[in-house]
Amino acid sequence: MTRGRTDGGAGRIAYHRPVVFFSLERTPPLSPDEAWRRLTRWPRHADVVPLTRVTVTTDGPTREGTAFTARTTVGPLRFDDRMEVVLWRPPADGEPGLCRLEKRGRVVLGWAEIEVGPGPGGRSRVRWREELGVRFLPGLFDPLLRRAAHAMFGRAVNQLLRQS
Questions:
Q1: Residue 79's beta-bridge partner residues?
Q2: What 3-state class would DSSP assign to 55?
Q3: Structure confidence at residue 164 (pLDDT)
Q4: What are the Cα distances from residue 96, in Å, to 21, 88, 118?
Q5: At 66, is the pLDDT very low, low, confident or very high (cuts 50, 70, 90)?
Q6: CB atoms < 10 A from the CB of 35, how many?
Q7: Which neighbouring-strand residues pair with 12?
Q8: Three-class SS of residue 110?
Q9: Cα radius of gyration (the chain)
Q10: A Pfam family name for this chain (predicted)?
Q11: pLDDT at site 31
Q12: ω into residue 61 within 30 of 0, thus cis?
Protein backbone atom coordinates (compact mmCIF):
# COMPACT_ATOMS: atom_id res chain seq x y z
CA MET A 1 0.00 0.00 0.00
CA THR A 2 1.16 3.47 -0.79
CA ARG A 3 0.65 6.68 1.15
CA GLY A 4 1.47 8.85 -1.81
CA ARG A 5 2.63 8.76 -5.39
CA THR A 6 5.17 10.37 -7.59
CA ASP A 7 3.58 12.37 -10.36
CA GLY A 8 5.98 12.48 -13.29
CA GLY A 9 8.47 14.66 -11.47
CA ALA A 10 5.80 17.04 -10.18
CA GLY A 11 6.45 15.89 -6.63
CA ARG A 12 4.94 13.68 -3.99
CA ILE A 13 1.19 13.84 -3.46
CA ALA A 14 0.00 12.68 -0.03
CA TYR A 15 -3.27 10.86 0.49
CA HIS A 16 -5.15 10.72 3.75
CA ARG A 17 -5.09 6.93 3.68
CA PRO A 18 -3.38 4.09 1.85
CA VAL A 19 -4.44 3.38 -1.72
CA VAL A 20 -4.50 0.22 -3.80
CA PHE A 21 -2.95 -0.31 -7.21
CA PHE A 22 -4.20 -2.63 -9.93
CA SER A 23 -3.59 -3.06 -13.64
CA LEU A 24 -5.27 -4.76 -16.58
CA GLU A 25 -4.04 -5.68 -20.04
CA ARG A 26 -6.12 -6.64 -23.05
CA THR A 27 -5.34 -7.34 -26.73
CA PRO A 28 -8.62 -6.73 -28.56
CA PRO A 29 -8.99 -7.33 -32.33
CA LEU A 30 -9.19 -3.58 -32.94
CA SER A 31 -6.86 -0.95 -34.31
CA PRO A 32 -5.27 1.25 -31.63
CA ASP A 33 -7.33 4.21 -32.89
CA GLU A 34 -10.59 2.28 -32.52
CA ALA A 35 -9.71 0.86 -29.09
CA TRP A 36 -8.75 4.39 -27.95
CA ARG A 37 -12.02 5.80 -29.24
CA ARG A 38 -14.07 3.14 -27.47
CA LEU A 39 -12.27 3.59 -24.13
CA THR A 40 -12.25 7.39 -24.06
CA ARG A 41 -15.87 8.20 -24.81
CA TRP A 42 -16.55 9.02 -21.16
CA PRO A 43 -20.39 8.93 -21.12
CA ARG A 44 -20.27 5.32 -22.42
CA HIS A 45 -18.62 4.24 -19.17
CA ALA A 46 -22.04 4.64 -17.52
CA ASP A 47 -23.36 1.89 -19.84
CA VAL A 48 -20.95 -0.65 -18.35
CA VAL A 49 -20.59 0.42 -14.69
CA PRO A 50 -23.70 -0.48 -12.71
CA LEU A 51 -25.61 2.25 -10.87
CA THR A 52 -23.41 4.97 -12.37
CA ARG A 53 -24.07 8.02 -14.53
CA VAL A 54 -21.24 9.96 -16.23
CA THR A 55 -21.48 13.67 -16.98
CA VAL A 56 -18.78 15.54 -18.91
CA THR A 57 -18.56 19.03 -17.38
CA THR A 58 -16.35 20.70 -20.00
CA ASP A 59 -16.82 21.28 -23.72
CA GLY A 60 -15.43 18.70 -26.15
CA PRO A 61 -13.46 17.33 -27.71
CA THR A 62 -11.51 15.55 -24.96
CA ARG A 63 -8.15 17.15 -24.23
CA GLU A 64 -6.00 18.01 -21.23
CA GLY A 65 -8.32 19.81 -18.83
CA THR A 66 -11.46 17.86 -19.78
CA ALA A 67 -13.41 17.10 -16.60
CA PHE A 68 -16.19 14.65 -15.90
CA THR A 69 -18.01 13.12 -12.97
CA ALA A 70 -19.09 9.51 -12.47
CA ARG A 71 -21.95 9.55 -9.96
CA THR A 72 -22.78 6.21 -8.37
CA THR A 73 -26.08 5.86 -6.52
CA VAL A 74 -27.14 2.93 -4.35
CA GLY A 75 -30.46 3.57 -2.67
CA PRO A 76 -30.11 6.72 -0.57
CA LEU A 77 -26.29 6.68 -0.83
CA ARG A 78 -24.43 8.42 -3.62
CA PHE A 79 -20.91 9.54 -4.30
CA ASP A 80 -19.16 11.40 -7.07
CA ASP A 81 -15.89 10.37 -8.67
CA ARG A 82 -14.68 13.66 -10.21
CA MET A 83 -11.91 13.25 -12.76
CA GLU A 84 -9.77 15.48 -14.92
CA VAL A 85 -7.74 14.53 -17.97
CA VAL A 86 -4.20 15.69 -17.17
CA LEU A 87 -2.44 13.95 -20.07
CA TRP A 88 -4.02 13.40 -23.49
CA ARG A 89 -1.87 11.84 -26.19
CA PRO A 90 -3.90 9.71 -28.65
CA PRO A 91 -2.09 6.93 -30.53
CA ALA A 92 -0.34 8.22 -33.66
CA ASP A 93 2.28 7.06 -36.15
CA GLY A 94 2.57 3.63 -34.55
CA GLU A 95 3.23 5.11 -31.10
CA PRO A 96 0.98 4.20 -28.17
CA GLY A 97 -1.54 6.69 -26.86
CA LEU A 98 -1.70 7.61 -23.19
CA CYS A 99 -4.49 9.25 -21.20
CA ARG A 100 -4.01 10.04 -17.52
CA LEU A 101 -6.96 10.88 -15.31
CA GLU A 102 -6.58 12.43 -11.86
CA LYS A 103 -9.39 11.83 -9.40
CA ARG A 104 -10.43 15.19 -7.90
CA GLY A 105 -13.29 14.19 -5.61
CA ARG A 106 -13.62 14.27 -1.85
CA VAL A 107 -14.27 10.55 -1.49
CA VAL A 108 -12.59 8.73 -4.40
CA LEU A 109 -8.83 9.35 -4.63
CA GLY A 110 -6.07 8.39 -7.04
CA TRP A 111 -5.46 8.27 -10.77
CA ALA A 112 -5.96 6.07 -13.81
CA GLU A 113 -3.92 5.65 -16.97
CA ILE A 114 -5.20 4.22 -20.23
CA GLU A 115 -2.48 3.24 -22.69
CA VAL A 116 -3.34 1.94 -26.16
CA GLY A 117 -0.84 0.91 -28.79
CA PRO A 118 -0.07 -1.70 -31.42
CA GLY A 119 -0.32 -5.29 -30.25
CA PRO A 120 0.35 -8.76 -31.63
CA GLY A 121 -1.13 -9.91 -34.92
CA GLY A 122 -2.65 -6.58 -35.92
CA ARG A 123 -4.49 -6.24 -32.63
CA SER A 124 -4.10 -3.38 -30.19
CA ARG A 125 -2.62 -3.65 -26.71
CA VAL A 126 -4.60 -1.91 -23.97
CA ARG A 127 -3.11 -1.27 -20.55
CA TRP A 128 -5.26 0.20 -17.77
CA ARG A 129 -3.39 1.13 -14.58
CA GLU A 130 -5.10 2.62 -11.58
CA GLU A 131 -4.27 3.76 -8.08
CA LEU A 132 -7.48 3.96 -6.09
CA GLY A 133 -8.44 4.98 -2.59
CA VAL A 134 -11.68 5.68 -0.84
CA ARG A 135 -11.46 8.28 1.90
CA PHE A 136 -12.83 7.09 5.24
CA LEU A 137 -12.59 3.42 4.21
CA PRO A 138 -10.28 1.70 6.71
CA GLY A 139 -7.15 0.09 5.24
CA LEU A 140 -8.46 -3.25 6.51
CA PHE A 141 -10.72 -3.25 3.43
CA ASP A 142 -7.94 -2.61 0.89
CA PRO A 143 -7.64 -6.26 -0.25
CA LEU A 144 -11.39 -6.33 -0.90
CA LEU A 145 -11.24 -2.93 -2.65
CA ARG A 146 -8.39 -4.14 -4.89
CA ARG A 147 -10.23 -7.34 -5.90
CA ALA A 148 -13.56 -5.55 -6.44
CA ALA A 149 -11.98 -2.73 -8.48
CA HIS A 150 -9.96 -5.16 -10.59
CA ALA A 151 -13.08 -7.23 -11.35
CA MET A 152 -15.35 -4.22 -12.00
CA PHE A 153 -12.89 -2.32 -14.21
CA GLY A 154 -11.88 -5.51 -16.01
CA ARG A 155 -15.50 -6.17 -16.91
CA ALA A 156 -16.04 -2.53 -17.88
CA VAL A 157 -12.97 -2.47 -20.15
CA ASN A 158 -14.06 -5.73 -21.80
CA GLN A 159 -17.53 -4.36 -22.48
CA LEU A 160 -16.30 -0.99 -23.74
CA LEU A 161 -13.95 -2.72 -26.18
CA ARG A 162 -16.78 -4.96 -27.47
CA GLN A 163 -19.25 -2.12 -28.11
CA SER A 164 -18.77 -0.02 -31.23
A1: 72
A2: strand
A3: 87
A4: 22, 11, 7
A5: very high
A6: 27
A7: 6
A8: strand
A9: 16
A10: Polyketide_cyc2
A11: 97
A12: yes
